[in-house]
Known about the structure:
Layout: H1 5-17, H2 20-27, H3 31-45, E1 50-53, E2 56-59, H4 61-89, E3 94-100, H5 104-118, E4 125-131, H6 133-141, E5 147-151, E6 162-175, E7 186-187, E8 196-199, H7 205-216, E9 223-226, H8 230-238, E10 243-247, H9 252-257, E11 261-265, E12 271-278, H10 286-299, E13 304-306, E14 311-313
Parallel strand pairs: 3-4, 3-5, 7-11, 8-9, 8-10
Antiparallel strand pairs: 1-2, 5-12, 6-10, 6-11, 6-12, 13-14
Helix pairs in contact: 1-2, 1-3, 1-4, 2-3, 5-10
Amino acid sequence: MRLNPRYLMVFCVVAELRSLSRAAEVLHLSQPAISKTLKALEDIFRQPLYERTAKGIVLTEAGRALLPYACAVSRSLAQATRFIEEQRTRRTPAFTVGLSWSLIPRFQAALLRWAEAEGGRTRFDLHLVHGTTLELIEQVYQRDLDGALVLGGSEALPEPLEARRVTTDEAMLAVAPSHPWAGLGGIALGQLEGARVLVPQRNSRLRLRLEQFLEGHGIVPERFVECGSLLGVKAAALDGLGVGIVCRSFIEPEVSTGALKGLFIEDPGFALGVHWIGHPEPTLGLTVRELTASLLGALRHVRVPDSASGQVSTGAR
């Protein structure tokens, strides 16, 4: 016996609607085609499955017994059809990653190279979003981002977010080559007493760390000059407008060309972890989970050139 699954689908629709004409409309078939299909099913079953009455189609005992199986097949066919259609029209999955402004020079090129290499194995589009650490953590929490690479960010995370340490960076001071401190390798922050300090926006982790230290030690600069972002701090330092708070990797390109001088902070507490912020793995989809693992494996090998010694380092001094 060869049973066409479509016979069962038609039978299920007719039984549910109790009308050949309405079933024909729903299935976009002619009424004779519906009748022919039901007749073929009855021939296979060797029993009448329904009767026509003034009130519509009424199933026989054999028809009522067959109905659950017929409707199960009908539902499976509909689900399979939807699945195939979704697969045919599905857009390329997106992997949306946040990157702190401070980490762009060190990690952006590595992120793009990783996406190009990984794209040969997994079909996806990388969407890259920049922001401060606090902004990106909030976007990960709201699931607007699949994860974010941030400077610091492991303290007091909202549940259920998790922080995975990738590597380290460190806060530094940046000055123009013409600045009186340009010849120094490093300074204690007490020397900022009476100095003009260039700082990024108020929700910057670097600024918060610096201000907490200065306040805790009673150090009062001449003034804080808010530059809007780390890019603004770097631009102002290049113009010789003061001493900027930055992270080491952020000014590495300018330090390597001599356009800026980087001063290591001699006080403790300015080594900063670089963390991946994300939701717990079990709550992630398979594609995001696999892409995250691959990305973190690649990022752990990104190194920061040490312009002062001509060597490279993955951690803070």
